[in-house]
Specification:
single chain, alpha/beta, 60s Ribosomal Protein L30, Chain: A, eleven-stranded mixed beta sheet
């Protein structure tokens, strides 16, 4: 009987959490009969604005009971209007997708209510928008999807994998011919995104860094899809695009120094283990005056919103279980612990220079709690396994990795979710080089389900 009441209480508490959570049900109240004109506007990333943002607005309109919904191009390329009818009134949302930096400029100039970004807000942008509140706080920063920055080549190119170092050398012009990679021959033609693009900012940060500059021979494009189609038609071409824009091109597996090659697949991107995975963001002022824009942001985080993320070709944040590969590598204890478990498509990560869960991790705690409350999961158990980067001693790395897992366990307990005893494996199984700034990605907590 005590067990019954414990489970009943747990279910009631989790129900309340889900109802109060921003990622709760997609249920939204219908538009009021006097709704009319422009509701809000989004400026920024072409990666988000090309297809995902219009589709999310369309689904939001549908959930709110609007009719005659259409997506119409405006007079300028990469700008659209999503409009609909509420009774006899016309409502609309305008979307301008000219690159992540234009989103933050739009906020500052009061031309946009929401900024779309395919990279985190920069320090200079944070300072410029300081009057709008802390734009790195959870109320302002919303991770809406995970994308993989795919390195693409012609479909018949024999190259199947490249290291980050080889990719850097290709795009900086140090490797000029395919024969230098031992595959085929002919001058390499480079295709890259334009300077306004968050895709370019991510590529520059993750691949070129401060050491390399893009080759002067590179051709630049504003559109991911256009770039992908051009590489597909060029047997000697190579480029980079967002995951949703691979189209007919061939994506190669990527590895960092002393790490295993990772293909841009659902699990590797969802967990951000893939070296060129990235987060897609929406940013809104903390002191936003648009209640409709805030409701839209909550809708995007709901299961219905995340379903559209998936339909648009990106990786949704809804937890999914994957059976481990038989050929996987790792310490024998790690392999034994996870042998009969499913790996969930969540890795918990931490704010830079902090032991606190970052904004995405805090959202994922709520998603995981809701996932475990489903009837088919209530009798199952979670295992948290921490990892880290290299420290002065392996023992210290193991301790810190276990402490990260303890942090996640404590957050889950706040939601009445218990776990198996946590584990920590230190610097084993790095997903990024421990000799670069990217080593922060090694500080993570995997989630396994029994």
């Amino acid at each position: 009987m005590n067990l019954f009441f414990q489970r009943l209480c747990r279910s009631i508490i989790l129900l309340l959490i889900c109802l109060l959570s921003p990622i709760a049900s997609a249920a939204v109240s219908p538009f009021s009969s006097d709704s009319n004109g422009k509701l809000f506007s989004l400026h920024g990333s072409n990666t988000i604005g090309a297809q995902l943002a219009p589709s999310l607005v369309r689904d939001y309109f549908t959930a709110k009971g609007a009719t005659d919904i259409s997506i119409k191009p405006l007079g300028t390329p990469n700008e659209v209007r999503v409009q609909a009818k509420v009774g006899n009134n016309t409502i609309f949302v305008d979307i301008a997708a000219h690159g992540s930096s234009t989103g933050f400029k739009g906020l500052k100039l009061a031309q946009a209510d929401i900024a779309m970004a395919s990279r985190p807000i920069k320090e200079s942008e944070l300072n410029a928008l300081s009057q709008m509140g802390d734009m790195r706080s959870r109320k302002a920063e919303h991770v809406i999807a995970i994308d993989g920055l795919a390195i693409i080549v012609h479909p018949r190119n024999p190259i199947n994998q490249l290291t980050l170092q080889e990719i850097s050398a290709i795009f900086s012009g140090q490797i000029k011919d395919w024969s230098e990679l031992g595959k085929g021959r002919g001058r390499i033609n480079i295709y890259a995104r334009d300077d306004q693009s968050g895709t370019w900012d991510t590529f520059k940060s993750l691949v070129l860094g401060k050491r390399y500059s893009l080759s002067s021979r590179a051709k630049r494009y504003e559109s991911n899809d256009q770039l992908s189609d051009l590489v597909t038609s060029d047997p000697r071409g190579i480029g980079f695009v967002g995951l949703a824009s691979i189209r007919q091109a061939k994506a190669v597996a990527v590895s960092d120094q002393n790490t295993l090659p990772q293909a841009p697949e659902h699990l590797t991107i969802a967990t951000e283990d893939y070296p060129l995975s990235r987060r897609l963001f929406l940013y809104a002022p903390v002191y936003s005056s648009s209640s409709t824009a805030q409701e839209f942001l909550h809708f995007v985080q709901s299961e219905s919103g995340q379903e559209q993320v998936k339909s648009s070709g990106f990786v949704a944040q809804t937890p999914i279980g994957f059976k481990p590969e038989e050929s996987r590598e790792g310490p024998s204890e790690y392999l034994e612990l996870t042998q009969n478990a499913e790996r969930l498509s969540i890795n918990f990560r931490f704010s830079e220079g902090s032991a606190s869960l970052d904004n995405k991790a805090q959202q994922d705690i709520e998603r995981l709690a809701k996932f475990m409350e489903k009837p088919q999961n209530q009798e199952r158990e979670l295992l948290l396994i921490g990892f880290g980067d290299e420290k002065v001693s392996p023992e210290r790395s193991v301790i810190l990795s276990k402490l990260r897992a303890v942090t996640v366990r404590s957050a889950l307990r706040d939601h009445k979710i218990n776990t198996a005893p946590v584990q920590g494996f230190g610097a084993y199984l790095p997903i990024a080089s421990n000799n670069s700034r990217a080593k922060i990605k090694n500080r993570r907590v995997e989630v396994w389900l029994f």
